[in-house]
Design goal:
Uridine Diphospho-n-acetylenolpyruvylglucosamine Reductase, domain 2; about 325 residues; Uridine Diphospho-n-acetylenolpyruvylglucosamine Reductase, domain 3; four-stranded mixed β-sheet; alpha+beta; globular
Length: about 325
């Protein structure tokens, strides 16, 4: 997009936004991601509520400007050149609500961290959210990707999702009406999750729930690297583990610059300090080529390439 288009957008929305909505130009995104790489967003916004979000979405859509959501910044890579788009982040407290309902459900705002959701549900004696504790994501990102860990999936606990389309229209969908699969939610491809009503599977003593969380934490600490990463880089092929394939090809410790295939878990690429997105992409290509050559399997990235498509690079 040309510079004038972005200036016109900013001039159009700024007077309509509340004082607590953050709107900046060329905000560097690397510190907002778990991999700690990437350039700036052409325009970056932290809307203070649904009204401001609607203004941003509808105006961007009317002007043909691309919109991207940034949650906790996990499961994605930001290109070194940055993103020529409007990047939205639900960092404002209005998006981070956890509210127990009279019918036993939980309202979880899209900006609520999964770790906080798990902790608050545990205090309330609600079972079923323990697997979320170690996933570095927000509720909105977990819904969009149907995040999973320890045998559980985000949509296992979803009853109803509230979303806003890119034109600014609000919609409410029951779980049964949504199309979800492995790392996929069809209805959130072209929409933004506002939050969801979640349902617990049972009630239990807080200490009993805490013990299960401790088991998951121990397993995670033993099996996943602690260095900056974007989580699992590749999707698991049918009936197979991507990490196992990569490990069997002798790729643990493989490096391009400061990007390294983790010696702890082969499906993680970690940032050893000064990795660039270009380093990581080069390493992803190398890993894919080696696995394809040795095992005949085309590994597909699970991590998102923010603002770009993998098919244009692989």
């Amino acid at each position: 997009m040309n510079e004038q288009a972005w200036q016109n957008f900013i001039n159009a929305v700024r007077p309509k936004l509340s004082a607590t909505t953050k709107l900046t130009e060329r905000e560097v995104l690397a510190p907002k991601t778990t991999m700690r790489v990437g350039g700036p967003a052409r325009v970056y916004a932290e809307p203070a509520g649904e009204t401001d979000l609607q203004v941003l979405l509808a105006t961007a859509h009317a002007r043909g400007l691309p919109v991207l959501m940034l949650g906790r910044g996990s499961n994605l890579l930001v290109p070194d050149s940055g993103v020529d788009g409007l990047v939205l982040n639900f960092a404002h407290p209005d998006w981070q609500k956890f509210e127990l309902q009279s019918d036993g459900r939980i309202w979880a705002g899209a900006g609520l961290r999964l770790k906080n959701l798990c902790g608050l549900a545990t205090k309330a004696g609600l079972v079923g959210f323990e697997f979320l504790e170690g996933i570095p994501a927000s509720v909105g990102g977990a819904l969009r990707m149907n995040a999973g860990a320890m045998g559980g999936w985000m949509f296992d606990v979803v009853d109803e999702v509230h979303l806003m389309t890119l034109t600014g229209e609000k919609r409410v969908l029951k779980r049964a009406a949504m199309h979800v699969d492995y790392r996929y939610c069809g209805e959130l491809r072209e929409a933004v999750a506002l939050g969801a009503f979640l349902r617990s599977s049972a009630q239990a003593d807080t200490q009993d729930i805490r013990r299960q969380i401790d088991v998951y934490q121990k397993k995670r600490l033993e099996s996943q690297p602690r260095e900056p990463s974007a989580g699992c880089i590749f999707k698991n092929p049918p009936n197979c583990s991507a990490g196992k394939l990569i490990d069997e090809c002798g790729l643990k410790g493989e490096r391009v610059g400061d990007a390294e295939v983790s010696p702890v878990h082969a499906n993680f690429i970690v940032n050893r300090g000064a990795a660039t997105c270009a380093d990581i992409i080069a390493l992803i290509r190398r890993v894919r080529a080696r696995v394809k050559g040795a095992r005949g399997v085309d590994l597909e990235p699970e991590v998102l390439l923010f603002g770009q498509n993998w098919k244009d690079l692989l």
